[in-house]
Amino acid sequence: MAKKSAAPAKGKPAAPAPAKGEGMGWGMRIGLLLVAIPAVVFMGPTVLLVCIALLPTGVAFISDRSISKTGWLCVGGLNLAGAVPFIATLWEKGNTVEAALRLLTDVLTILIIYGSAGVGWLLYISIPQLLGAFMAMTAGHRVATMKAQQDSLIEEWGTEVKQGAEEAVAEFMRRGRVTDFAEPRKSAAQPPRRG
Predict the structure, then answer these.
(1) Greatest CA separation found in the chain?
(2) Domain boundaries, the chain
(3) Which tens digit of pLDDT belongs to each residue from 105-144?
(4) d(Cα 139, Cα 136) in Å, to the nearest integer?
(5) Residues 6+ positions from 85 with CB-CB distance below 8 Å
(6) Shortest CA distance to 79 belongs to which of 107, 108, 111, 48?
């Protein structure tokens, strides 16, 4: 019997090899099992409460299609913050399945836990827009300040100072970065430097 080659079929591209650090390696899986099995055996009611309480975090992890995958961190942090008081309550009541089910069937408990996850979603969605608006406002203020400084320079030195300013401002607005203008512009008014 002939050996099958590992090369892909004609017309089909080879599947990319997973990059190092992507996914969960065998060591991580075994470590997770070594922690999860005793946790389920000895802390079953707590695991039940945490699994149901952190459902929004799991949904955020699965549904986040961004490259950075940071949505679940924002949702998960606040979701966990909403769940911790009820985990403490469960431990105070003896960590029984009955106490866990009583907490999970309480509407106020679920409202607080899932509401805190909702606040996490709200922050994840709204903060980038708020920061973008703030940065645009700051950049507009900076342009207005530079324009006022330019006007005072024109008043003091004359209109030769203004040569090329419109193009520089247009380029600044197009690029949106100040660092690109670190090198001084050479104009016809400046004599060549002799070294």
Answers:
(1) 92
(2) 40-179
(3) 999 999 999 999 999 999 999 998 999 999 999 998 998 8
(4) 5
(5) 112
(6) 111
